[in-house]
Protein backbone atom coordinates (compact mmCIF):
# COMPACT_ATOMS: atom_id res chain seq x y z
CA UNK A 1 0.00 0.00 0.00
CA UNK A 2 1.39 3.43 -0.89
CA UNK A 3 1.73 6.04 1.87
CA UNK A 4 -1.07 8.02 0.24
CA UNK A 5 -3.50 5.12 0.50
CA UNK A 6 -2.61 4.61 4.16
CA UNK A 7 -3.38 8.24 4.93
CA UNK A 8 -6.65 8.08 3.01
CA UNK A 9 -7.73 4.95 4.88
CA UNK A 10 -6.84 6.48 8.22
CA UNK A 11 -8.71 9.66 7.35
CA UNK A 12 -11.79 7.62 6.49
CA UNK A 13 -11.75 5.89 9.86
CA UNK A 14 -11.33 9.19 11.67
CA UNK A 15 -14.37 10.57 9.87
CA UNK A 16 -16.42 7.52 10.78
CA UNK A 17 -15.37 7.96 14.39
CA UNK A 18 -16.44 11.57 14.34
CA UNK A 19 -19.81 10.77 12.80
CA UNK A 20 -20.49 8.25 15.55
CA UNK A 21 -19.48 10.64 18.32
CA UNK A 22 -22.27 10.88 20.85
CA UNK A 23 -21.62 14.55 21.52
CA UNK A 24 -23.53 15.46 18.38
CA UNK A 25 -26.54 13.34 19.25
CA UNK A 26 -29.33 15.25 21.01
CA UNK A 27 -29.62 14.03 24.57
CA UNK A 28 -32.59 14.55 26.82
CA UNK A 29 -32.70 14.06 30.55
CA UNK A 30 -36.11 13.90 32.18
CA UNK A 31 -35.97 15.66 35.54
CA UNK A 32 -38.93 15.15 37.83
CA UNK A 33 -39.27 17.62 40.68
CA UNK A 34 -40.84 16.16 43.80
CA UNK A 35 -41.22 17.87 47.16
CA UNK A 36 -38.35 15.92 48.72
CA UNK A 37 -36.26 14.78 45.77
CA UNK A 38 -35.27 15.35 42.17
CA UNK A 39 -35.42 12.26 40.03
CA UNK A 40 -33.58 11.87 36.73
CA UNK A 41 -34.25 9.18 34.17
CA UNK A 42 -30.48 8.94 33.72
CA UNK A 43 -27.54 10.19 35.73
CA UNK A 44 -24.95 9.69 32.98
CA UNK A 45 -24.74 11.62 29.74
CA UNK A 46 -22.14 12.34 27.08
CA UNK A 47 -20.50 15.75 26.72
CA UNK A 48 -22.38 18.12 24.45
CA UNK A 49 -25.86 19.58 24.28
CA UNK A 50 -28.25 18.25 26.88
CA UNK A 51 -31.93 19.13 27.13
CA UNK A 52 -33.43 18.89 30.58
CA UNK A 53 -37.15 18.22 30.39
CA UNK A 54 -38.16 19.51 33.81
CA UNK A 55 -41.54 18.50 35.21
CA UNK A 56 -42.91 19.65 38.54
CA UNK A 57 -44.70 16.53 39.71
CA UNK A 58 -44.67 17.40 43.40
CA UNK A 59 -47.94 17.10 45.25
CA UNK A 60 -47.19 20.08 47.50
CA UNK A 61 -48.77 22.65 45.16
CA UNK A 62 -45.50 24.59 45.27
CA UNK A 63 -43.46 26.14 42.52
CA UNK A 64 -40.05 24.57 42.09
CA UNK A 65 -36.98 25.16 39.94
CA UNK A 66 -33.93 23.36 38.62
CA UNK A 67 -30.45 24.84 39.02
CA UNK A 68 -27.45 23.18 37.38
CA UNK A 69 -24.07 23.70 39.07
CA UNK A 70 -20.72 22.22 38.07
CA UNK A 71 -18.93 20.97 41.16
CA UNK A 72 -17.09 17.91 42.37
CA UNK A 73 -18.95 18.07 45.69
CA UNK A 74 -21.56 15.42 46.42
CA UNK A 75 -25.05 16.74 45.74
CA UNK A 76 -25.94 16.61 49.43
CA UNK A 77 -22.76 18.36 50.59
CA UNK A 78 -23.34 21.96 49.52
CA UNK A 79 -23.25 24.70 52.15
CA UNK A 80 -26.68 26.07 53.05
CA UNK A 81 -27.19 29.56 54.43
CA UNK A 82 -30.63 30.78 55.45
CA UNK A 83 -32.26 27.92 53.64
CA UNK A 84 -30.51 28.36 50.32
CA UNK A 85 -27.35 27.11 48.62
CA UNK A 86 -24.96 29.95 47.78
CA UNK A 87 -25.21 29.47 43.99
CA UNK A 88 -22.78 32.33 43.34
CA UNK A 89 -19.97 30.31 44.90
CA UNK A 90 -20.32 27.70 42.19
CA UNK A 91 -20.02 27.56 38.45
CA UNK A 92 -23.65 27.89 37.44
CA UNK A 93 -24.42 26.27 34.11
CA UNK A 94 -28.08 27.17 33.88
CA UNK A 95 -31.46 27.09 35.54
CA UNK A 96 -35.17 26.96 34.91
CA UNK A 97 -37.06 29.09 37.39
CA UNK A 98 -40.62 28.88 38.61
CA UNK A 99 -41.96 25.61 37.28
CA UNK A 100 -45.58 25.65 38.43
CA UNK A 101 -47.19 22.49 39.85
CA UNK A 102 -47.99 20.05 37.06
CA UNK A 103 -46.09 22.09 34.48
CA UNK A 104 -42.94 21.40 32.48
CA UNK A 105 -40.14 23.60 31.21
CA UNK A 106 -37.09 22.87 29.12
CA UNK A 107 -33.48 23.86 29.69
CA UNK A 108 -30.83 23.32 27.03
CA UNK A 109 -27.21 23.50 28.15
CA UNK A 110 -23.86 22.46 26.78
CA UNK A 111 -22.12 20.22 29.28
CA UNK A 112 -18.40 19.50 29.45
CA UNK A 113 -17.15 16.31 31.11
CA UNK A 114 -17.42 16.46 34.87
CA UNK A 115 -19.72 16.20 37.87
CA UNK A 116 -22.82 18.34 38.20
CA UNK A 117 -25.26 18.99 41.00
CA UNK A 118 -28.90 19.70 40.19
CA UNK A 119 -31.02 21.33 42.85
CA UNK A 120 -34.06 23.38 43.66
CA UNK A 121 -32.96 26.51 45.46
CA UNK A 122 -36.30 27.77 46.66
CA UNK A 123 -35.83 28.51 50.35
CA UNK A 124 -35.63 25.29 52.35
CA UNK A 125 -36.12 22.96 49.39
CA UNK A 126 -32.50 21.82 49.07
CA UNK A 127 -32.53 20.74 52.70
CA UNK A 128 -35.77 18.87 52.10
CA UNK A 129 -33.88 16.71 49.63
CA UNK A 130 -34.39 18.49 46.32
CA UNK A 131 -30.98 17.69 44.86
CA UNK A 132 -29.27 15.07 42.75
CA UNK A 133 -26.14 14.63 40.68
CA UNK A 134 -25.27 14.03 37.05
CA UNK A 135 -22.04 12.72 35.56
CA UNK A 136 -20.91 13.79 32.11
CA UNK A 137 -18.29 11.53 30.55
CA UNK A 138 -17.34 10.56 27.00
CU1 LIG B 1 -38.37 23.25 45.25
UniProtKB/TrEMBL annotation:
Which residue positions does the secretion signal occupy? Answer: 1-22
Q: Where in the cell is it found?
A: Periplasm
Q: Which GO terms describe its molecular function?
A: copper ion binding; electron transfer activity
The UniProt entry lists the main location of this chain as periplasm
Cellular component terms (Gene Ontology): periplasmic space
- The Blue (type 1) copper domain covers which part of the protein? 39-136
One of the Pfam families matching this protein, by short name? Copper-bind
Keyword line = Copper, Metal-binding, Periplasm, Signal
Residue ranges of coiled coil = none
Q: Which Gene3D superfamilies match?
A: Cupredoxins - blue copper proteins (2.60.40.420)
Protein's UniProt name: Blue (type 1) copper domain-containing protein
Amino acid sequence: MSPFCQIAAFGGLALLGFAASASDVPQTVKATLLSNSIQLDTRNVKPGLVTFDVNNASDDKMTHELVVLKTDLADGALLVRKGRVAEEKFRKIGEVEDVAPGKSKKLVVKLAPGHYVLLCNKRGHYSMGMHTSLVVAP
